[in-house]
Amino acid sequence: MTVAILGGGISGLTLAWQLQKAGVAYDLFEAEATPGGCLRSVQHPAGYLLETGPNSLQLSDELLALLTELDLTNEIEDAAAVSKHRYVLRDGRYQELPGSPPSLLTNGFFSLKGKLNILRELLRPAAPVDPQETVAAFFRRRFSSEIVDYAVNPFISGIYAGDPEQLLVHKTFSKVAALEQQYGSVLRGLAKSGGGAGRRRIITLRHGIQTLTDTLAARLTNRHIGQPVRALLRTPEGLYQLKTATASPHTDTVYDAVVLALPTYAVAPLLRPLFAEAAAALDDVQYPPMAAVYTAYQRADVSHPLNGFGALNPKVEQPYAAGSIWTSSIFPGRAPAGQVLFTTFVGGAQYERHARQPEAAQKAAVHEELSRLYGIREGAQPVWQFRYYWERAIPQFDQHIGPAHAAADALQAHNIWSVANWRGGVGVPDCIRQALLVASKLMQQ
User: Which of 12, 102, 289, 330 could form a disulfide with 355 if both were Cys (CB 3.0 to 4.6 A apart)?
Assistant: First the structure.
């Protein structure tokens, strides 16, 4: 068997690595000059180490195994202990969000009425499965509007760049939805399944998360960087050939299987001549715009203790940004001594207008909001600011994702497989898990 892999992000690289170890012939094609997809680390000359993609990683078993194989365990840097604290804007100030189911009732974050609704969740019967139920509708039904406004909404906006009124619970939080069906209560299910036992270990890599994809790419023998695929052709025998943008010795290579490790908007044009219906479904997947604004201040100018991972801003509070990660609190050394570094996210499905504002306007608005919310000394200006912009950020698991997943399932019958963050989940551990699954299936053919 010979496999063509289109896309050199974490999904495609992980898949290629698994095939290479198993002795399966493959060619990996990546359009960009640097592989890695959205995993990008920038060492700025002024002394800041920035992540323009994921800012940290949850250390799943699969990710740890991959880091071990690549001899990168000595690069692992754990998040500082304060990162277990997460904050949410409520009534114009940041308050700590309860970190476990029991603390939902003992913490002062939610109102007495909200706490009673949390307790009542244990008594509410499970509803029939509705594949089109949104995240907001699910949590509103099981808990209350207060939970949706001040816990679910900021989490969805900050982590998924999404809108809980649009994202589907059975696609976004399938495990949580399953708890209701299995145990009759989400909280009871969390208690019995150990799901509320705590967060996974949060890490980065000492020289940036891009170290992972750089190392993977360097280990691959059949990678073709700077080689965008322009067309996917099918032979009369049902095999595949590729046309690349530049002359390639692989033009005549025939592939038994093709793996699409690309965003849906890049996949759709390749599939359209052969599988028009599947291409149309993939073309409908939404990717809202997002900007990350990095802002550094002198520590003495910021009165907030910054004793946590960061803070999220609920839509009900009418903020400018979705929230900020307190980068220098989580990973000391990512900013010069005596400074603090915020990574602020502007945009997503609920704030598209803000995402598309000019860079100067975004930087000024972020500074104004940070100054107001973090008690920054009057008149103090940022020591340094930088912006990174994605016109298409995170795929949305809304009403369009179901048809896209169904199309991907149908394509497997034609030996076209998909590994990407729109397929198995948006997190890096999700992408690695999906790549391992598809690699296993290919190796069984």
Answer: 289
Alpha-carbon span 320 to 362, nearest angstrom: 9
Q: Cβ distance 241 to 257 under 8 Å?
A: no
- Look over the chain and give the mean of its residue pLDDT values, rounded to a whole number: 94
Least Cα distance to 44 among 53, 56, 52, 34 occurs for 52
Contacts of 351 (CB under 8 A, 6+ apart): 157, 320, 321, 322
272: tokens are 């359209």
Residues of the chain short of pLDDT 70, as ranges, are 101, 195-199, 247-251
Pairwise CA distance, residues 258 & 275, whole Å: 14
Strand ranges across the sheet with 2-6: 223-225, 25-30, 2-6, 257-260, 416-418
Strands (E), 348-443: 384-390, 416-418
**Whether the Cβ atoms of residue 17 and residue 219 lie closer than 8 Å to each other:** yes
Q: CA–CA separation, 387 vs 4, rounded Å? A: 35
The span from the CA of 116 to the CA of 33, in Å, is 55
Residue 363: the pLDDT is 98
CA–CA separation, 328 and 342 (whole Å): 7
The predicted pLDDT at position 186 comes to 94
* Amino acid letter for position 219: R
Kindly report the number of other CB atoms within 10 A of residue 296's CB atom.
23
In whole angstroms, give the CA distance from residue 374 to residue 91. Answer: 14
Measured between alpha carbons, how far is 60 from 432 in angstroms, rounded to an integer?
Answer: 10
pLDDT at res. 248: 66
Q: What is the dihedral of CA 38, 41, 44, 50, to 10 degrees?
A: 80
Q: Angle formed by the axes of helices 428-443 and 61-69, to 10°? A: 70
**Which amino acid is located at 379 in the chain?**
G
Question: Residue 326 phi/psi, 5° resolution?
Answer: -90, 80
Q: With beta carbons less than 8 A apart as the criterion, state whether 158 and 312 touch.
A: yes
Q: Please report, for residues 33, 49, 144, 359, the alpha-carbon distance to residue 217 in angstroms, rounded to integers and kept in the order given.
A: 12, 21, 47, 33
In tens, the pLDDT along 43-70 reads: 999 999 999 999 999 999 999 999 999 9
Say how far apart CA 8 and CA 316 lie, in whole Å: 39
Cα of 34 vs its chain's centroid, Å: 20
